[in-house]
Write a structure and sequence with these properties.
single chain; 4-stranded antiparallel β-sheet; 12 strands
Length: about 350
């Protein structure tokens, strides 16, 4: 009996230890603003998110909703006319916003890496591919040039580029769009980061290459137990690549949960509109003879949002309270958060 008690005690202690393990990344009430001729623009307005090691989170929304600015805020690469004025970005227990610029430079690339939307704007056109990857390796791992170049070739091979030794001597313009994206992934993975931010990594790629890139990121994630944040407007990418999803609109998160919960039971009208805009889902729900649904209007200008819910002028469910008061993001089902007055839990909050 004492042995059983000892085993149970250890098991309970282990469960408690796992239960209170902090997330790899936790964002709390983050606000990033820009000064403009039209006033202050809140590009990221009170966003809170978290992601664990080995997990993939999709951040989805139309262009202009603040998705890319959220990822740049995490990296502390906000353009000069912008600034982060509130919140915390806790990474492995450290607040990135309190780090010195030198500490943040050391963190970028080695612990947090980012794949940018357009590789041609991120790769230097006058340097060879291998040299650019090797520079990242030398910077963060302090290796001699020859060894860094050998690792560059190995990384190109790992991301599926044929004849990597030859390609390492090529310039960016010698490569196709899919190959350039693989080079960006190789560069991002060169120091085995704990967190990868992928900003529209499959934009402008055909469907076949898109699937290959998503599979590659998934394989690398599993191999390195890496967390991934996908920034995209494509819900098909989210369905294929992510476990959790956060829907972003006009600088705010309006719904978040597991991918299964959001796709099966979307609660926010904006999320419902995004899902109804998927051709396959539209045909399945309403038949081939019906027209594809669209969301009327466009994302409002962030300098003049007015009062109430930011989606109310595009929402077919809007009523008086939607115009007068902005709903908070509340848990209406287990681990399913939504910011909408038509949900009774939000209305009674």
């Amino acid at each position: 009996m004492p042995c059983v008690y000892l085993w149970n005690s250890c098991a309970i202690a282990s469960v408690k230890k796992t239960e209170y393990m902090p997330p790899l990344l936790q964002i709390k009430d983050l606000m990033t603003v820009f000064d403009s001729a039209h006033g202050t623009i809140k590009a990221v307005d009170g966003v809170s998110l978290k992601i664990d090691s080995g997990e993939t989170l999709g951040v989805v929304g139309e262009s202009g909703c603040g998705k890319t600015m959220l990822s740049l805020s995490i990296m502390r690469l906000v353009p000069p006319n912008g600034k982060i004025i509130n919140g915390e970005i806790l990474f492995s227990g450290r607040d990135l916003l309190k780090m010195s610029e030198e500490e943040m430079r050391a963190c970028r690339g080695s612990e947090i890496s980012m794949i940018f939307q357009e590789p041609m704007t991120s790769l230097n056109p006058v340097f060879r591919i291998g040299e650019q990857i090797a520079e990242t390796i030398r910077l963060h791992q302090n290796l001699p040039a020859k060894q860094a170049m050998e690792l560059s070739v190995d990384l190109l091979r790992e991301v599926g580029i044929a004849d990597p030794q030859k390609r390492a001597r090529d310039y960016p313009h010698n490569l196709s769009g899919g190959m350039r994206q693989r080079v960006m992934i190789a560069m991002a993975m060169s120091c085995h980061p704990k967190l990868l931010l992928a900003d529209e990594p499959t934009t402008a790629l055909d469907v076949t290459i898109q699937a290959q890139i998503l599979d590659l990121i998934s394989d690398l994630k599993q191999k390195n137990n890496m967390a991934v944040i996908f920034i995209t407007h494509d819900l098909g990418v989210i369905a294929q690549a992510a476990e959790k999803v956060a829907v972003m609109y006009a600088g705010k998160i309006v719904e978040s949960s597991t991918v299964g919960a959001v796709f099966k039971n979307p609660l926010h009208p904006y999320t419902q509109g995004l899902l109804d805009s998927i051709p396959a889902r539209c045909i399945e729900a309403r038949g081939r003879e019906d027209y594809l649904r669209t969301i009327p209007g466009s994302v409002p200008g962030l300098s003049d949002l007015g009062t109430g819910c930011r989606f109310h002028d595009r929402c077919s469910f809007a009523f008086t309270e939607c115009v007068q008061r902005e709903p908070e993001l509340v848990e209406v089902e287990k681990d399913h958060f939504v910011s909408c007055w038509k949900c009774s839990a939000a209305k009674n909050h």
